[in-house]
Amino acid sequence: MIQQSFIPRALQQHAEDAAGLWEIRRQMASAPHFNLARLTRLDYRIEAHLDGLRLAGDAAWEICEEALEIAGAGEVFAASILALECAAEDRQKRVFGVASASIDLSPGAISALGWQPFDQVRRRIDRLVVAAEPAMRRLGVGGAAVHRRDPGRPLIDALGADDPALRARALRAAGELGRVDLAPVLRERLADEDEHCRFYAAWSAALLAKDVNAIVALKTITESDSPYREQALRMALLRMDLPAAHAWRGELAHRSDGVRSAVIGAGVIGDPESLPWLLEQMSFPALSRAAGEAFTMITGVDLAASHLDRENPAGFESSPNDDPEDEDVELDPDEFLPWPKEGAVAEWLNRNLSSFQAGSRYLAGQPINPAWLHELLRKGNQRQRAAAALELSGIQSGEPIFETRAPGFRQIQLLDAFEFYWR
Fold first, then answer.
1. Confidence of residue 278 (pLDDT cuts 50, 70, 90)
2. What is the rounded (10 degree) CA torsion for 331, 301, 386, 368?
3. pTM
């Protein structure tokens, strides 16, 4: 017989593991060493812990509710799943109240809305998008957007909301949902007083309409110290023609604060013409791994699997480290990327360069076209898959962006359905 004291401890462990694994998933969903298969396995691990909580009913809710007192976004995710599945109004008000009070906690609730089948959360999302509180409406717009379901009039209203966080989420959703008809509204918001709104207005306008003014705004963001500078770089280059993209990348490469952007940009552009230059950048420790990833984004070669990588340089230590005196607490942007072995990469390039055509755009080793992009959505790593989804959205104007961060089991279903439709 199971001792009663064991049950609370087991439930506590399920709650902690569900929250902790979700936090790991949040990072891995855009990691260069994760693909759809690994993401799906992680999602099933999260589901196993959620199942342990589901089976316990009210006892599990009490533990998750207590965790909300010292909540991180992972705890909000676990509690939101239980509240949504039991359909108890008081529990849903509790978790969404906690989530709406903090931008940092909101992703947990939005992720929970996206985790559930849409039919099971449609009514909750419909209520959230018309709530009186802007923060609640933001959760609703986010939940609809991750499902790639258009909330309709509430989205349009949110684009002009006084609350900048709600406005920014709606501007982002317009692009994610493929709302080409909203391009004039996005254009008006390029001069928004809020930096988050300015970025998402430019990002969505560039994606949906290839808006010249939006591309200029993205270039300005890239050349600033904005937290959105890398996202702005990627979207700007995605929507430029090849000569303009090369010209801007060249300008960035000649700026001391722009070389890293130029390296990343070479991978976004995808022109094999940049491969010799990327090889040169691999000799600089601060750029080496980013240059290796850009090289892979163009050629498709897996540096580690092809034995084109090396050990970390002597004395190298990823940040943040364990030194309490070290004030650098920023995560290493190149974590999980291999260190290229320049000599071996040079030999590979000499053997294979002739198979690539300069002046064309490649992604992961093949010229960019819809068939290859769909294949990458299945077999690419998470960054390649995200790039493929954006490329497809640009080609198929008015279509929502495929959500590469959705639960893996749902992504597989969507990809299977898509392939059946196009046979």
1. very high
2. 150
3. 0.92
